[in-house]
Amino acid sequence: MVAVSNPLIEQFFVKQSKPNINPLIIPDIPLIDLSKPESKHHLVKACQDFGFFKVVNHGVPLKFINKLETEAVKFFASPVSNKERFGPPDPFGYGNKSIGRNGDVGWVEYLLLNAKPESDYPENFRGVVNDYVTSVKTMACEILEILADEMKLQQRNVFSKLLMDEQSDSVFRVNHYPPCPEFQENERNGRKLVGFGEHTDPQIISVLRSNNTSGLEISLRDGSWMSVPPDSESFFINVGDSLQVMTNGRFKSVKHRVLANGTKSRVSMIYFGGPPLSEKIAPLPSLMQGEEDSLYKEFTWFEYKKSAFNSRLSDNRLGSFEKVIAS
What we know:
Blueprint lengths: L5 H4 L3 E3 L15 E3 L9 H7 L2 E5 L5 H16 L2 H4 L9 E7 L4 E11 L11 H25 L9 H5 L6 E7 L5 H6 L2 E9 L5 E6 L5 E4 L5 E3 L7 E5 L1 H6 L9 E4 L6 E8 L6 E2 L17 E2 H9 L18
Parallel strand pairs: 2-3
Antiparallel strand pairs: 1-7, 3-11, 4-5, 5-6, 6-13, 7-12, 8-11, 8-13, 9-10, 9-12, 14-15
Helix pairs in contact: 3-5
């Protein structure tokens, strides 16, 4: 349990600003079965329409998933003094309620870890994180290569090579959203408990897995929020800002958030596949058709990461990198 005094709890609750989608017209979250070749043809459409999809038959061993969740639950259940030995995050380490350095807060505690195998992790995490991340990265690269195939790109590894590069700037995050003592009273008053505020992911691709507690929501094009039913044996994939730029806006980086359940603990683990810091990010010339204009200025991943790090979660991080196209 995260212990805070009652007056401070108020900052984690917000009035619902945008209505949730009408339950009678809920669209289906795209489902991709990696064991079925015909399912792969739906990947591009999922990235274009949602920027988000669910993956089954993913090839990540359940034993890796279960071991990591077990260690995560143990870590977050340990005394605060033990957890704080690994914080505050700079940028890696343990954090509690404060997200980033620009005033964002959420009803969450977390571990942010470097995804490189030789990185420093809390005890009992090293082996299980390495096994998990290696397997999840393999899946992410397979998805990126299928996308390249479906888009008829000459280089099948045009996206995946950025994750496989030894200098890949990928990170791994484990989030814990604990129960909240003030949850039910606030919910009756139409207030939502913010676990992690609305944002897009700046990297190329994000691979999310959580336990069977709900909370994740994605923003649809009309501005409504759609709740994503949890599934602890599947993965959810987010298109990141960098992939949106590399596809010149064909793929959409999905805005998402977590509303903490309040009564049940939620644990999620996310692999963020990023390019090397020096990598130049720009629309792929091989994708540009005819007189198609580039929608984005070229930037390095270091430049964009720095800009994102200095912004608020809900900011339009790509805004300052968009080109003004003359009409």
